């Protein structure tokens, strides 16, 4: 049976492994955390990402992919040339570093928010003016779920934020008055064939994704623009495998790329239950060179994240399980405030029913 290696063993690896199995594909995950979600449904190599024996095991797989971008580039370098690594280390090196990523997006001809790369204190002078006077200072590395970012409205706040973030390399971005946030995944085969996922609309709460909805309520032409940007990035970056773009949509309809994830994305989880191919199967197919065409839910679908609350309050599972069209997906993680513990997908026959049920579902999830 074909075997797929996965760097990282979190919930994305769990769901990749669950999607691979019915295709006759086994998975092996390299993940140092003994409690990582994927341990329950994949072979778990519990070791540092650079462990030579574990990398030898992955090199014996048919292909290697990743579910987590903060894998050391050295781990990918140790695999390249021995096994197809998709996406490759050159792409990972960009997408794990905000400043390099934004520069590479611009080089691909794709619009981003105005930004200034901050490498040292000297770069702070005039930076806020250059991005429009209001912004977000974000660490270039390791940020997720809005961690490592500070809103800034004055030069003094920029300096204080840089100090509070530890004076590490950052990006100062202009604050974008977006109308909505959308995302779209693209897959590209080694032969250069491109396929797209659905356009999904996202809302955030406290910097963390709260809901995703398909179809997005975006104006005519938005999906075509998003696909054009995704194709440009996939081709310019030499993608093999799958990546997801997050966009801001401006009031005039223009799309700016916020960031790129070199993998399946939280906003694509709704594809598990919409009746079409899931993003997880799409990544498995793209990475192993199995046939893949555009994928999207066949029905209106939404997702709500379950995020660990400060008071340890559980969602109302009985209410959720008896609401028509819901399915839970739990990650077997110890609850902690602000930690993603699972999600609930919701499917409905038409958008009106979806939105009515989504309001009820959201009321059941603290
Ligand atoms: P994740 O990787 O979990 O998506 P992250 O920590 O990398 O999150 P971003 O995606 O950069 O963070 O930002 C999180 C959210 O904060 C965005 O989806 C958006 O809602 C808001 N945000 C980020 N940058 C800007 C900006 N320049 N202008 C306005 N809002 C922003
Ligand atoms: Mg991010
Ligand atoms: Mg983001």
TrEMBL record:
Residues 102-288 form the ATP-grasp domain. GO terms for cellular component: cytosol. It is an enzyme of class 6 (ligase). It catalyses: 5-amino-1-(5-phospho-beta-D-ribosyl)imidazole + hydrogencarbonate + ATP = 5-carboxyamino-1-(5-phospho-D-ribosyl)imidazole + ADP + phosphate + 2 H(+). InterPro entries: ATP-grasp, ATP-grasp_carboxylate-amine, ATP_grasp_subdomain_1, PreATP-grasp_dom_sf, PurK, PurK_C, PurT/PurK_preATP-grasp, Rudment_hybrid_motif. Catalyzes the ATP-dependent conversion of 5-aminoimidazole ribonucleotide (AIR) and HCO(3)- to N5-carboxyaminoimidazole ribonucleotide (N5-CAIR). Belongs to the PurK/PurT family. Homodimer. This is N5-carboxyaminoimidazole ribonucleotide synthase. It comes from Deinococcus phoenicis. The gene is purK.
């Amino acid at each position: 049976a074909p075997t797929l290696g996965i760097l990282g063993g979190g919930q994305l690896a769990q769901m990749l492994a669950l999607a691979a199995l019915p295709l006759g594909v086994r998975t092996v995950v390299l993940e140092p955390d003994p409690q990582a979600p994927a341990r329950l449904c994949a072979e778990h190599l519990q070791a540092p990402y650079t462990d030579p024996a574990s990398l030898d095991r992955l090199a014996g797989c048919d292909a290697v992919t990743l579910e987590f971008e903060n894998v050391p580039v050295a781990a990918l370098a140790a695999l390249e040339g021995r096994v197809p690594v998709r996406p490759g280390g050159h792409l990972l090196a960009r997408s794990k570093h905000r400043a390099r990523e934004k520069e590479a997006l611009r080089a691909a001809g794709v619009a981003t928010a105005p930004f200034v790369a901050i490498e040292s204190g000297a770069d702070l002078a005039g930076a806020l003016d250059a991005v429009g006077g209001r912004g977000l200072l974000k660490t270039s590395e390791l940020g997720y779920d809005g961690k490592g970012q500070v809103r800034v409205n004055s030069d003094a706040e920029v300096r204080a934020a840089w100090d509070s973030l530890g004076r590490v390399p950052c990006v100062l971005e202009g604050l974008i008055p977006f109308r909505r946030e959308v995302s779209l995944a693209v897959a590209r085969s080694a032969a250069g064939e491109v396929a797209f996922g659905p356009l999904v609309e996202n809302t955030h709460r406290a910097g963390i994704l709260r809901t995703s909805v398909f179809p997005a309520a975006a104006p005519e032409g938005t999906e075509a623009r998003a696909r054009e940007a995704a194709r440009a990035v996939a081709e310019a970056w030499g993608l093999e495998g799958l990546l997801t773009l997050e966009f801001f949509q401006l009031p005039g309809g223009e799309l700016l790329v916020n960031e790129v994830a070199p993998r399946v994305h939280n906003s694509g989880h709704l594809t598990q239950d919409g009746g079409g191919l899931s993003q997880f199967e799409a990544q498995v197919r793209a990475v192993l060179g199995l046939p893949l065409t555009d994928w999207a839910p066949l029905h209106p679908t939404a997702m709500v994240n379950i995020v660990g609350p400060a008071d340890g309050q559980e969602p109302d599972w009985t209410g959720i399980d008896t609401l028509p069209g819901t399915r839970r997906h739990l990650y077997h993680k110890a609850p902690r405030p602000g930690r993603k513990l699972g999600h609930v997908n919701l499917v409905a026959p038409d958008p009106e029913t979806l939105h009515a049920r989504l309001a009820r579902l959201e009321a059941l999830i603290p």
